[in-house]
Amino acid sequence: MVLTPEESSLPPLAGQHVALLPLSEAHIKPLQQAVRDGELWTVEYANVPHPDQMPEYVHKTLRAMQAGTQQAYAVQHLDSNQIVGCTRLYDIQISNRRCKLGYTFYAASMQRTAVNTECKRLLLQHAFETMRQIAVEFRTHHDNHRSQTAIERLGAHKDGVLRNHMILADGSIRDSACYSILDREWPLVKQALAQRLS
Known about the structure:
By secondary structure, the protein is an alpha+beta fold. It has five helices and eight strands. It has a single domain (13-197), classed as Aminopeptidase. Helix 3 (114-130) runs antiparallel to helix 5 (186-197). The longest helix is centred in the middle third of the chain and has 17 residues, at 114-130.
């Protein structure tokens, strides 16, 4: 069984530029359109499904949401009313009050805009203030310097590198750079994000 938006216990998260809507089957076609903008599945280091793989990608994510290990959202751009990407909290550890933030992609036309900053603010606020997490972690390819720079701009602390962390679809072995933001660091991070959005 796949949850409809009405049946989902996840709240939508709304800002000035975007709304984060709990992921549902209804978002498959809009997300197929979003990834075509920039052919995101071809971008180096990105883990973005081809449009033909989007149904499987969404259904797999919905199963993880039902299991309680993920909270995934479609990103709606409020000015255009279009679905322009997807993002999520994942590896949610209830006993340790930790989770990771990632699996994020946006249509090329929405990159380097306020969309990503506001998505991160909304998800981090939800994680720290609603879910009461004590840490939110970020992981990225060790060679993806652009991603690492963006994570560091959020105010995340680099915890280290997981060597030989993953075997990728092409058979290459990925080292992962690991970052985190702690609950006690969130107020300053939140303030900095608000300033960037203003």
